[in-house]
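Here's a chain:
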Amino acid sequence: MKILHILNDGPDKLPESIISVHERDNEVKIIDLSKKDISYDSIVDDIFTSDKVISW
């Protein structure tokens, strides 16, 4: 399963622990929206190609 995690405020303890569990059995991608150089076109593509999207 492809899981996309979108971090709105940057990394945090709770999302990091859940992401590490998801990484055991899934393909995981993380997008940190607190970074400056973000391609919103690629974010939309990632959302549509993922099986599950989790926003933090």
Q: What stands out?
A: Helices lie at 13-25, 40-49. The chain has one domain: 2-55. Residues 13-25 form the longest helix (13 residues). Strands lie at 2-7, 27-32, 52-55.
